[in-house]
Write a structure and sequence with these properties.
This protein is an all-alpha fold. Helices cover about 60% and strands about 0% of the residues. The protein is globular and about 50 Å long. The model has no long low-confidence stretch (mean pLDDT about 95). Bound molecules: protoporphyrin IX containing FE.
């Protein structure tokens, strides 16, 4: 792939307009994590060049399935009242606007995970996503009234669902079991890395105390 192709891949979008998606802009939070710390985290999950390559292949495989992937994840949330409450109004009613707008950004996150360069903009948007799960920024982007924050423990535990449920989608385009396994391994490492980053504001007592 030439550098021009790589650049357009990196900015691939699920829609031309994604409300509230501030990736790469000054509106996104600034990550307190340095690129050097990111490098150490990558080494900690053993995120290799091969993982990068397979994540890219995974992106190609799921690019036209993001809507179904998010539906699948959300079906697990919807089936669990203790999780569903965080997407509902304070009266416990569904909010189609909240669901549609955050859903589009959730779909874009899949592409970003697979195609973006893990650089300063990416780090910054990790911080932004994390804050949007905490009381600092939850509900603000879509101007909704819903539960104030999502407890960190559920964000961490939900990686089990994020990672399990994506696997059949990775196998949907006829790749060998070995290739699907490699794509999946790369995906899981990236998610683990991202959740480690997202724990930062939750564990900073001056930002989001007591949101475990
Ligand atoms: C590994 C776990 C999780 C991942 C990868 C994930 C991913 C995401 C992403 C990518 C977004 C959109 C960020 C943006 O605005 O650009 C988002 C928002 C959101 N997520 Fe999660 N999430 C996780 C766990 C959870 C859990 C456990 C819940 C609820 C039980 C949840 C509920 C929400 C809600 C309500 C929003 C909208 C937040 C807002 O008001 O801006 N998430 N999530």
């Amino acid at each position: 792939m030439n550098p021009k192709q790589a650049a357009s891949e990196a900015t691939r979008k699920v829609a031309s307009e994604i409300p509230g998606y501030t990736y790469g802009t000054s509106e996104a939070a600034r990550s307190p994590v340095s690129l050097a710390d990111l490098e150490l985290l990558k080494r900690t999950v053993n995120f290799t060049d091969e993982d990068q390559r397979y994540l890219h292949i995974a992106g190609e495989v799921i690019a036209d399935q993001t809507e179904d992937v998010v539906k699948k994840w959300r079906s697990v949330i919807a089936a669990n009242p203790h999780l569903a409450q965080y997407s509902l109004s304070l009266e416990g009613k569904p909010d189609p606007h909240y669901s549609a707008e955050s859903g589009l950004r959730f779909r874009q996150w899949i592409l970003d995970t697979c195609f973006r360069r893990y650089d300063q903009d990416w780090l910054n948007y990790q911080q932004e996503i994390a804050l949007r799960h905490t009381s600092v920024k939850k509900n603000q982007t879509d101007h909704v009234e819903s539960a104030a924050y999502i407890p960190l423990r559920y964000v961490i535990a939900f990686t089990a669902i994020i990672n399990d449920a994506i696997k059949p989608f990775l196998g949907a385009k006829g790749h060998s079991a070995d290739e699907v396994e490699r794509m999946h391994r790369a995906w899981c490492k990236s998610v683990q890395l991202q959740i480690a980053l997202w724990s930062e504001p939750y564990t900073d007592s001056s930002i989001a105390p007591n949101e475990w």
